[in-house]
């Protein structure tokens, strides 16, 4: 196992640790008694964690260090980071004294995001076990980019609502809805991509 923990995999594990710290910071926040510094810290942690995703992938490809462990671990950690962020966005910590969730993220949106990740993980596992490569598609990468832009933007606008004034609500709403739409579309694309494999495995 130690031999497989090359530099890209170690960076990926570091991202998982950052994600755990990120969740710990975010769970301390309450919109009823807002402390903007907690969201600022979470914002920085998320940006650094998302940046390591680019770094470990670049190193793995450029140095020929792509491993089976990395192909599984990297998307898993990405899903933990993003899904965890949106689950907390829809949680009670972001509900103000009027009962309104200030992030604009609703429970059903989280179901779409998490459901997509579970489905794609299952499809990836099935395809890999059948001997077929299941690398991330352009749609999948676009989905990840949108999510990684939306999450820190939500954190920043909630922490500093007076900086963007009227644009604050629109910015969050557009990015949150764009995240849901792109996530749903990428789900359809992955299912269509896996259809030949799934049909080929069906009993006659």
- Shape field: globular
Estimated helix fraction: over 70%
Structure annotation, total helices = 7
SSE order, as H and E?
HHHHHHH
Query: Termini separation (Å)?
Result: 40 Å
What fraction strand?
under 5%
What low-confidence regions span 5 or more consecutive residues with pLDDT below 50? none
Write the layout of secondary structure elements.
Elements: H1 7-26, H2 36-62, H3 68-89, H4 107-129, H5 138-159, H6 161-164, H7 167-201
Helix pairs in contact: 1-2, 1-3, 2-5, 3-4, 3-5, 4-7, 5-7
Compact description:
The protein has 204 residues and is mostly helical. It has one domain: CDP-alcohol phosphotransferase transmembrane (TM) domain (Four Helix Bundle (Hemerythrin (Met), subunit A)), CATH 1.20.120.
Account of the 3D structure:
The protein is built from seven helices and no strands. Helices cover 75% and strands 0% of the residues. The protein has helices at residues 7-26, 36-62, 68-89, 107-129, 138-159, 161-164, 167-201. The chain has a single domain, classed as Four Helix Bundle (Hemerythrin (Met), subunit A). The model has no long low-confidence stretch (mean pLDDT 84). The chain has 204 residues and is mostly helical.
Task: Kindly list the characteristics that best describe this protein.
204 residues, mainly alpha, Four Helix Bundle (Hemerythrin (Met), subunit A), 7 helices, 0% strand
């Amino acid at each position: 196992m130690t031999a497989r923990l090359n530099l890209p995999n170690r960076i990926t594990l570091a991202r998982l640790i950052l994600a755990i710290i990120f969740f710990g910071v975010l769970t301390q926040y309450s919109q009823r008694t807002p402390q903007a510094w907690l969201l600022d810290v979470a914002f920085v942690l998320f940006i650094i964690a998302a940046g390591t995703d680019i770094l470990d992938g670049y190193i793995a490809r450029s140095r020929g260090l792509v491993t089976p462990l990395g192909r599984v671990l990297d998307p898993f950690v990405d899903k933990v980071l993003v899904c965890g962020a949106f689950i907390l966005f829809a949680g009670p910590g972001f509900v103000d004294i009027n009962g309104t969730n200030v992030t604009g993220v609703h429970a059903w949106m989280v179901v779409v995001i998490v459901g997509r990740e579970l489905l794609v993980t299952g499809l990836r596992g099935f395809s890999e076990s059948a001997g077929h490569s299941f690398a991330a598609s352009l749609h999948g990468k676009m989905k990840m980019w949108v999510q990684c832009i939306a999450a820190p933007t939500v954190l920043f606008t909630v922490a500093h609502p007076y900086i963007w004034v009227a644009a604050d609500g629109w910015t969050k709403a557009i990015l949150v809805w764009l995240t849901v739409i792109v996530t749903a579309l990428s789900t359809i694309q992955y299912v269509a991509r896996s259809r030949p494999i799934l049909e080929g495995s069906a009993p006659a």
